[in-house]
Amino acid sequence: SFTHLEQYNFDFVENSEGKERGYCIWQEKDSLFYVRDAGPVKSSSYREIIGGLCGIAKDKGLTPLFPTVPDDDPLFLEATELDPEVLLKQSEMIYKIH
């Protein structure tokens, strides 16, 4: 069973007309809205999704946090244009298994 997944929520992100614009896997902890994964539908953009997620977090009185987003990810590239506060940079190491 996948009890560790019960702490996550999966929701569709909708615009003001109620049309699906993307999806989000998230978790609420303390005063933070942790976005584990998010993405747009074909006719939408990451910028629109980020705006929607920040709006949801604000409505809940939470601070949005996008942890572990690689700097070459489309979500990160769109977010940098919105001047976010970067808390840390992640370095990845690849180990060769012989």
UniProtKB/TrEMBL annotation:
Keyword tags: Transferase
Transferase as UniProt keyword: yes
GO molecular function: transferase activity
Transferase among keywords: yes
Protein name per the record: Acetyltransferase
Organism of origin: Mesotoga prima
Lineage: Bacteria, Thermotogati, Thermotogota, Thermotogae, Kosmotogales
